[in-house]
Design brief:
It holds the Pfam family ZT_dimer. By secondary structure, this protein is of the alpha+beta class. Helix content is 68%, strand content 10%. It has a four-stranded mixed β-sheet, covered by helices on one side. α8 (250-267) links the parallel β2 and β3. The longest helix is centred in the middle third of the chain and has 30 residues, at 136-165.
Length: 291
Amino acid sequence: MNIAYGSVAVGLAVLAIKTLAWWLTGSVALLSDALESIVNVATALAALIALRIAAQPADADHPYGHHKAEYFSAVLEGVLIVVAAILILREAWNAWENPRVISEPWLGLGINLTASVLNGIWCWVLLRAGRELRSPALAADGRHLMTDVVSSVGVTAGVVLAVLTGWWWLDPALAALVALNILWSGWQVVRGSVGGLMDEAAPEDEIEQMRALISANAEGAVEAHDLRSRRAGRALFVEFHLVVPGEMSVDAAHEICDRIEAALHGAFEGSRVTIHVEPEHKAKHSGIVVL
């Protein structure tokens, strides 16, 4: 949660710095950079709200928890990115029709570069936290921030070229390129979040790891089949059927289930495991072979 609060603080600081750079120069390319920072602040606030909701425990109305709230945050971020891109394209078109000389370019670029460095450091923090915490909201925020850093570097280089050559049309052209880059970023964020909202299965490498753990820890059972999984934010839901000998006692079958669950919980933090025990005549002779 502290990371989410940090994102809001960093976003506000970067927005203030980039707005100052645009105010000094009048560059539409630097304006596009500042507009993207407004999106960063809005999405950081959305991620903070989503994380607070997702952290709430399961209740009677939400027995599986509130983890999917993070995906709604990521989708909202994608929509805001698209809105920012449209605003930037409009400003770029106006500047293309009425080219303007950039004032105080070196001071403005130096200030803008300071914001880019701050963004780059925080981007690294967010991406690392998103991987470690398996948080779609933090990961989406980090990916978008990386796009912001890359576009800021491109904008800085382009404005330098415009100042040195006097080709002032480069300023709106760069702004348009930034907008297109932001649109691509928004599409990537939305696409990844929709997969989570649609109960997309865990990645293939994780499924193979599950199969191996079940096989290695199901001694006494006959087989396991119909393995299914889905991710919801940081939670991983796993369910499958476990076939045991018909004469096996409930206590013995339960002990096997406990052993498998412990192995899966150890490998996948935040996993929720559901096992349906079946008698031997339900075996499909396919799926996971017990070692």
